[in-house]
Automatic annotation (TrEMBL):
Keyword Membrane: yes
Domain Type II secretion system protein GspF residues, every copy: 21-139
Domain of life the protein comes from: Bacteria
Cellular component, GO annotation: plasma membrane
Bilayer disposition of the protein: Multi-pass membrane protein
Name this polypeptide is given: Tight adherence protein B
InterPro entries: T2SS_GspF_dom (IPR018076)
UniProt keyword annotations, A-Z: Cell membrane, Membrane, Transmembrane, Transmembrane helix
Species of provenance: Leifsonia naganoensis
Compartments it resides in: Cell membrane
Transmembrane spans: 128-150, 156-175, 274-299
Signal peptide: none
Length: 306
């Protein structure tokens, strides 16, 4: 399973846990008890571990922050940790915040699915062409040409073997780097705006809401919050006299749409960029290891026949 598929599955499972927590909290169950119930039912080991930490005496905020540090900063549990911390600190209702986090995580998983589908073709092509040199060797052996003898029995053959092998390795490394670069990274798009909206919904000031969001980013090990986009939205709200929360929610949705478009664009570009290692490394390696030794073997056998 690819790293992108792992990320997609994690986001979906964390979203399911958040939705379950919201339902239990609406039913009047205490947060710690709700986590214990969800932890027993969830197939996600991170959710179960959070529940175990809470049963061991940790607060929900501390358990989420600790598990976010273990599971990685781009995981869904880190986003859930930040949302929970802001909602508790601001005194906002937990259920709407959890449902908002679940929706954002579902959207993130959808982005990962779309990019995974778009990358599947180029990635399969990259794997296939990487085996071409060995396929060429196999065909030569089937034709009765002693390719291995040609490659190891003369300086020319050793040169072909070294050059072809080196090109094959470079092609594989290059291809893997291109696929890795096209794979989307980072956390949940629009999370900073969502955190500020959660804080604003409790009546806090914009400055206090932004401070809570920045602190939650740090506690969940999500890195440093990007402030430039938020600054622009808040300036627009101030000039127009529009509700800042609604504009921030709209900006968060726009970030998620942009992330989806960027993922699709990266996958489409990958299909073109993969032609470079194919043309410059893989195909020359195929010629040096599969075609050239076969030609040399046929020539040598013909000369020996005369």
């Amino acid at each position: 399973m690819s790293r992108l598929r792992d990320r997609e599955d994690e986001a979906d499972r964390i979203a399911s846990a958040a939705e379950g927590l919201a339902v239990l909290l609406d039913a009047g169950i205490a947060p710690s008890s709700a986590w214990r119930h969800v932890g027993r039912a969830s197939p996600h080991p991170v959710v179960r571990q959070v529940a175990a930490r809470i049963e061991g005496g940790s607060t929900v905020e501390d358990a989420l922050a600790a598990e976010a540090g273990v599971s990685g900063s781009d995981g869904g549990v880190a986003a859930l940790s930040a949302v929970w911390r802001v909602a508790v600190a601001a005194g906002s209702p937990l259920s709407p915040a959890l449902r908002g986090a679940a929706a954002a995580l579902r959207d993130r998983a959808e982005v990962a699915r779309e990019v995974e589908v778009a990358l599947s073709g180029p990635r399969s092509t990259a794997r296939l062409v990487g085996w071409l040199p060995l396929v060429g060797l196999g065909f030569s052996l089937l034709l009765g040409v002693d390719v291995l003898g040609v490659l190891t029995g003369s300086p020319v053959g050793l040169g072909l073997l070294g050059a072809g092998g080196a090109l094959g390795v470079v092609g594989r490394i290059w291809t893997a780097a291109l696929v890795r670069r096209a794979t989307p990274r980072g956390g949940v798009p629009g999370l900073e705006e969502e955190l500020i909206v959660i804080a604003l919904s409790s009546g806090l000031s914009i400055e206090r809401s932004r401070r809570l969001a920045a602190e939650a980013f740090g506690m969940a090990e999500l890195g440093t919050a990007e402030s430039s986009a938020v600054d622009g939205v808040l300036e627009l709200a101030e000039r127009a006299g529009a509700p800042a929360a609604e504009l921030l929610a709209s900006a968060a949705e726009q970030h998620r749409r942009s992330a989806r478009a960027s993922g699709r664009r990266a996958a489409a570009d990958l299909g073109v960029r993969l032609l470079l290692p194919l043309a410059l490394c893989v195909l020359p390696s195929f010629l040096l290891l599969g075609v050239a030794p076969m030609v040399l073997g046929l020539i040598s056998s013909t000369v020996e026949g005369f």
